[in-house]
Amino acid sequence: MNELFQFNTLTIIALLLFFYGGTFWISTRIGKKQENADGYMTAGNKVGFGISAASMTATWIWASSMYASATSGYTYGISGPIHYGLWGALMILFIYPFGKRIRKVAPRAHTLAEVMFARHGRSSQLMLAGSNVVGSVISLMSNFIAGGVLISLLSPFNFIQGVIIVASGVLLYTLWSGFRASVLTDFIQVIAMLGAVAVLIPVIFFAADFPTMFESGAANLTPQQSNFFSSDAFMNQGAPYIAAVLAYAIGNQTIAQRLFAVRKDLIKPTFITATVGYGAMVIGVGMLGVMALYLGVDPLGGDPNNLVPQMAAEYLSPVLLAVFFIMIIGALSSTADSDLAALSSIVMTDMYGQSVGKDKADPKLMLTIGRLTMVAASAIAVVFASMQLNILDLLVFVGALWGALVFPVIASFYWKKVTNAAFTVAVIAALVVFLPVRFSLVSMDGGVGLIVDVLAIVGVGVVLGLMAFGFFGLKPALIIAAVATLGVAPFAFGTLHTYATLSGSLVAYSVSTIVCAAMSWRSKVNFDFSQIQKSVGDFDDRDDDSNRAEVMA
Questions:
Q1: Residues 424, 516: Cα–Cα separation, whole Å
Q2: Which residues neighbour 274 within 8 Å (Cβ) at sequence distance 6 or greater?
Q3: Residue 357, class by beta-carbon neighbours within 10 Å (0-12 exposed, 13-18 middle, 19+ buried)?
Q4: Alpha carbon 277 to chain centroid distance?
Q5: pLDDT (tens digit per residue) in 442-482
Q6: What is the pTM of this model?
Q7: Backbone φ and ψ of 47, nearest 5°
Q8: Chain-centre distance of CA 402, in angstroms?
Q9: In a designed cystine with 182, which of 13, 283, 288, 337 is the match (CB 3.0 to 4.6 A)?
Q10: Which three-class secondary structure string do you get for 526-542?
Q11: In whole angstroms, what is the distance from residue 181 CA to residue 23 CA?
């Protein structure tokens, strides 16, 4: 492939000013002279369908997901983007039944950790808040890295300059209006991204001589890559993502924040629409990786993350390449601004608000803390991004931490007998088992491997049972969990431990479930869920701007 096309300095500055200047202008239109602390975190809990669905979609469509979907297509062939995008989309879908329960129990909450504090106490809150902070910082850093790489590939600016430009641009329009700015700019960004994908992918498809290349380039694929039902793709890409579906949905504060922001009666249509939007866009972009595979393209520098900009630079005209550039910048910025809003909410609520008490919190100080959090988080993410740490390893660790939290968190919203000790011990035990399995710290030969297989098989039942529980209730969930466990056992026993990523995630689920259930079963606790609503609510009783709230609806 020839050397990549690059924009000159003036053009790239004009494009960045167009995007970040435009989003900043939008944020100034919704700014307030007297900001409300609760509005800064959840927009008054009354965001409407269109903006909320678009924001949920935009938040989950980050640059890394586009690059990873294309990498999956390039690695696993035609089924790769399906295994990436479909399960990613289901992360959004499977949370909505639990979301309705969470909003019923805590209608005015700001974070899940805040609810866990009311339900259990400090240690459960710190575990959930800590995992949210680590996950959001990693996500923020990942998006800054993606922005730095994109700008350095398509312009004379270097990587560090690109990282600083993206960080400054996102902070510029998010700082003053917080979550409200995030969701409103998300709406504009997702409309632009969906429109761009609808145009750019077909243009590249025909410019690269498809569908003829499906025949002439078929020799570039292995039998597994050309098989839509590839077992290689399912075991290495699809199955680990199925296991991660609930973990990312429960553990990510960006989803929880939108759950608390949308009107209660609009939770279901919002989440279903976001599921469809995310799946269509990410699977569509992932097809660039499949096309690259048929074309025999070698990733620039051996890095598959370069495939998407490579394909765009090779087959798009300069005008459409500029549209592509804005699309990717929009995707990474929409997730980065969500991460900043999520981090500020956690610090405002779980570190400051809960430490002084709901009725004693100073709203003005709270807002200052939230804004300083955004500045500090951006600075930390820029420093980590410049070090180019191994993001995948960090994401795997956070994903497992979230997997260990799923059953204790969900059970805490339905089962009155779950205790703080059961929650805490279950999460710690799950992590203790997960780490050696995922990172192969001990030999999996002999009995150890078989024990891991048993726990992972139980984990399959836990994952599918929890998914069923959200939609159908306890009895069908138990039946599905039992059938899944017994059905998988003959095929998985003796082999599942050889897939470290998959078995690591599954043991995190199973161990946390077994420990939490065993410790809670004989507990005499009979928690009254109505207590949560009394202790979780607004921090700021100053008048909100009802007219602005109507705009959000």
A1: 9
A2: 53, 54, 56, 57, 60, 92
A3: exposed
A4: 15
A5: 888 888 999 999 999 999 999 999 989 989 999 999 999 99
A6: 0.84
A7: -75, 140
A8: 11
A9: 337
A10: CCCCHHHHHHCCCCCCC
A11: 9
